[in-house]
Amino acid sequence: MSAADFYTGDPDADRLLAADDLALLLGMVLDQQVMMETAFAGPAKLADRLGGLDPAQIAHLDPEEFKAVCATPPAVHRFPGSMAARLQGVCAAIVADWGGEAGRLWTDGEPDGAEVYRRLRALPGFGDQKARVFLALLGKRRGLTAPGWREAAGDYGPDEAYLSIADVRDEHTLARVRENKKAVKAAAKARR
Fold it and tell me: Which contacts (CB < 8 Å, 24+ apart) does range 71-74 have?
């Protein structure tokens, strides 16, 4: 496994994230209010429990059944109910708008960075920051070459920004990102 494949430190979860566009997208959905590696390990848990990651299957599962899948220990997220709904919403959008192929979101029609950002923002639960982080992740870790992706990713676009999962390559860079996130939160708290 290369440094570009390090997301969680769990080799199985990292292989899935490196190979499966939907897994990476769902990891980004889960990346809030938990540690990054916990969030990005979630898709592997889902794949194990569901026999793979199929956006149509996830979108069409009974919501209560899918909540139970997400809540089964170890839970996919610390808030399995609300995250189950978000995951299903994103999968429904991938099925309805992108033919069930998550990667089409950033490849169809050879979009520029601003268009990929716009498409990400259109997904349920993707605000400005989440869309910018995921755009940076695509550019830095998945080889996205859309013109202007760095600009559209904002503060997350520069190499070695160490602000998000986009800059995590190993345990050392994971620690740097954590330190920077802690400093950003402390600065925001001090401004209040």
Answer: 74/45
